[in-house]
Amino acid sequence: MQSVNNKKAISKLATSGIKSNIKKFIVMIGAVILTTLLFASLFTVGGSVIGEAQISTMRQIGTTYHAGLKYMSLPEYEQVKDDPKIKDVSYCIMVGYLSNDELSKLTTEVYYSEELNAKNCFCYPEVGNLPVKENEIVTSDLVLEKLGVPAEVGTTFTVKLLIDGEEVSQEFVLSGYFTGDRVAMAQTALVSKEFQEKYAPVKMTTYAERTDNSMAGWMSVYLNFSNSFNIEKNVEALIDRTGLRSDVDYGKNFAYAGYEIDTSMAVICITMLITFFVAGYLIIYNIFDINIVSDMQEYGLLKTIGTTGKQLKKIVIKRANIISLIGIPIGLLLGVGVGACILPFVSGQMNTMTVGKGSVHINIWILIGAALFSYITVRISAGRPCRKAAKVSPIETLRYSEVSDKSGKKGKKLMIVILSLSLSLIIFNGVIGLISGFDVSEYVKGAVIADFSIQDASLDNMAAAYHETEGVDAEMLNKIEAQPGVNEIGNIYISSFGQEFSDESWKKVEDTFFTKDAVIDCVKNNYTYENRDFDACMEGFREEKTIMGSTYGMDEYALSKLTVVETLDGSDKIDWEKFNSGNYVLATRWSTDGHYFENIVEPGDKVQIRSHNPKYAETTEEPMESGQTTTYVSYDNAPVNEYEVYAIVDIPLAMRYRVDDFILLDYILPEGKYLEMEGEKGAMRTLVNVEDDKEEAFENWIKEYTNTEADSISYISKKSVVAEYKSLSDTIGIVGVVLSVILGLIGLMNFANTMVTSIIVRSREFAMLEAVGMTGGQQRHKLMKEGFTYFLWTLVVSVVISSIMNVTVIRFLADAFGMFVWRFTLMPLAVCLPFILAMIVIIPVIAYNRLSKRSVIDRLRVEG
Asked: How far apart are CA 463 and CA 445, in angstroms?
């Protein structure tokens, strides 16, 4: 037998086979489109979310560079700038800070910057140019807004600059401006090289050799390597390679360092990705497999004229490539569209502030990744059926039918179709089961303490450089009290200076609290470092006799919102009259990772609180190793009052000052006693309860007030929190339902293609049965019975796996989100399964009716 070895002939055979049965290949193209749509939408949403989070982190940090070397001198910069393993390098030089009163809550750093550095640090002028003349400046629109300066190039204005403790007043001309980031740690203003050299000449000696605490003149050198892998190791290697001093301070860009992902959530994400890959594989494999069966006669004829098994493989792969070439681009376009529709809902739940938030971040790698996943799925799916076609002998192929297919038994096809149908039902049941547990009382209880919480806008912004803790002043309190329907007001005050202990009280804390295993682990994990072991840490604690924490002042209404753990008299409530006598304090307990709760002090203990009233503040000078002195404010001579711990309490997150530390101890005093000790000051937060029918009016007032008269104040209302969490619930539902619908279409297409191809392959069998007396109705009944078998297995698999998922994954997600109450449910299956049953019964009947339009004689003439 002579083999045919002609690429053009193989290509022609592949394309002619498609043209001769275009309907069948349209179904295969549809399968590839659906699979690519699934991957493309997943990659678009996932890639855009990651991109948005990365950009947000970069803008918060202030640069896109991989790393930065801090406090560098000019000779040190010259030492590293030409290193061959650095891809990009640029620098800026610190000058000082803008110190106008209007910018007290908007820290603004002043630099000279190279052009490349400005572009990569989000401070290159979007309008205008970088400063060239001594009196030119560039800054953000946020700074200009605070200064009351119009954002127009050429505007002249005067600002104050704090340069190493000396204030300089300077008239500048605005040469350009850019859009500022409210999430940034600090705003930026850029001055010319001429101005920098005059007021902050670049340092020529190393930071270790400095003779004072001057900040002006130090260079920050930013670096990009060839890739973002192992940034820290690359920086350390650069320092070793160039001979730079070993103690140079450097930072890496955490936007490139990966994200902290909970292990359980990571497992869920990987499981979902595998699920989608399996779903795509199931449909394409099944369609290729059953179409190989229907094409066996063609392959048999080709084998009889000399086509080898290898060449048959090439024909099948060629057809798979043609199908991919058509289906994948269409799937990519549709997938990007679906992803773009879903993305705003997902992005809206992210705690990011970026330009173009919620926009699709199209990246060529996203499209290539989705296309590659789809193509790999097609090739893997086509591989086994392709090998099946190549192995069968010419005689076998001519008589090949579904019944004689020993290598692909019906049980396998049954399993593939059932899994494909069940996937969508399982995901749909899980999504609906989760969002149906959305419970207003659960999340309002954790996120909202009163109808309204009013505070400075910076207070809960973890990215803010400054947190205002006295935002609600007496004038504003009077206006709140004057609003109709206000029936309860709770003020929360705070001072954050740490808690001091006497020798006696510290010994008790050390002997009881610091001996607990959880606390020891916390100290070892978070306070030790090189050359400082656990014993050294404890010695440090012992010398200072201080634990980080804040002292709160609260009135009766605010106090009622605390969670009481235990009291001096064994009650589960706090007696306000007794507590307000001025002899008592409340103390919080310690927790870490939400798992361990321990009392640091106990009810009945005597504790000391030092006054930090400004009238007791003293300016103190302290010598430094360099011989210079530094100044700071001291309260060492302020009075210290002793109180008895009345109760141990937990402060709800919505009332706390959200500061991070590993071991914290907070005290709470009655409002009157607190203000007597600390002096008159503004409240950190004010809680407001309003009559139900007046809530909308109050919200309209506070919204207008914070937009016009007090733009630095923000508020949280019960309605806004409900809307926020409802939005998240809706997002989960929308994304889940869209994915379920796509998977459902894949499952139905799999079933339809299986049944239709089975009927076509068995057309001669049905004709023979009809010829010997079986009616069309009996044959339809037989097909419906086969379809019902698929339904029964789908029912069993869906119910069993959904039940397992419900009590494991869905329960975990409900607990993790906090705003859902877990409830076991299979109701979504009960709603969807009748529809699946109808489709499973109807599809074979429709296919048979179309086949039976041909006469029995015609069907008998077809070789099986």
From this structure: 26
Burial 815-835 (b: 16+ CB within 10 A, else e): eebebbebeebeebbeebbee
How far from chain centre, in Å, is Cα 792?
Answer: 40
Q: H helices of 21-114, where?
A: 22-61, 74-80
Question: What DSSP element (H or E) covers 162?
Answer: strand 156-163
Taking residue 308's Cβ as centre, other Cβ atoms within 10 Å add up to 15
Alpha carbons 361 and 60: distance in angstroms, whole number: 19
Tokens coding 814: 């409900």
pLDDT at 790: 78
Tell me how far apart the terminal alpha carbons of the chain are, to the nearest angstrom.
25
Check: pTM over 0.70? Answer yes or no: no
Query: How much helix, strand and coil, in percent to the nearest 5, is found in the chain?
Result: 50, 20, 30
Q: Is the CB of residue 726 less than 8 Å from the CB of residue 439?
A: no
Are the beta carbons of 689 and 573 closer than 8 angstroms?
Answer: no
**Total Cβ atoms within 10 A of residue 127:** 15
Cα–Cα distance list, 826 to 375, 816, 831 (Å):
36, 21, 9
Cα 542 from chain centroid (whole Å): 41
Give the separation between CA 319 and CA 338, rounded to whole angstroms.
Answer: 28
Neighbour count for residue 704 (Cβ, 10 Å)? 10
Cβ atoms of residues 389 and 291 within 8 Å: no
Percent of the chain predicted with pLDDT > 70: 69
Inform me whether the pLDDT recorded for 488 exceeds 60: yes
CA distance 307 to 806: 53
694 or 357: whose pLDDT is higher?
694
């030492």: which residue's tokens? 79
Per-residue pLDDT tens for 275-318? Answer: 666 766 666 666 666 666 666 666 666 766 777 777 777 777 88
CA 495/CA 678 separation, integer angstroms: 8
Cα 187 from Cα 185, distance rounded (Å): 7
pLDDT confidence tier of residue 258, bands split at 50, 70 and 90: very low
Confidence of residue 373 (pLDDT cuts 50, 70, 90): confident
- The span from the CA of 185 to the CA of 203, in Å, is 25
The tens digit of pLDDT for each residue in 60-70 reads 667 888 889 98
- How long a stretch of residues is the chain? 864
Spatial distance between the Cα atoms of 772 and 157, rounded to a whole number of angstroms: 102
Looking at the chain, the number of H-run helices and the number of E-run strands are 28, 26
Dihedral sign for Cα atoms in the order 556, 559, 560, 565: negative
CB distance 578 to 569 below 8 Å = no
What is the residue type of 829? L
Structure tokens at 107: 């820290």
Instruction: Answer for the pair 150, 90: CB distance below 8 angstroms, yes or no.
Output: no
Ramachandran class of 570: left when φ > 0, alpha when ψ lies in -120 to 50, beta otherwise: left
Kind and range of the H or E run holding 620: strand 618-623
What stretches of 137-262 show up as alpha helix (H) in DSSP? 141-147, 193-199, 231-242
Helices assigned H by DSSP within 243-350 = 263-294, 296-304, 309-347
- Say how many C-beta atoms besides its own lie within 10 A of residue 242's C-beta: 15
For 700, other C-beta atoms within 10 Å of its C-beta total 10
pLDDT > 90: percent of the chain: 28
Q: How far apart are CA 69 and CA 46, in angstroms?
A: 32
Characterize the bridge pairing of strands 563-567 and 685-690. unpaired
pLDDT beyond 50 at 829 = yes
- 8 A C-beta contact, residue 704 and residue 448: no
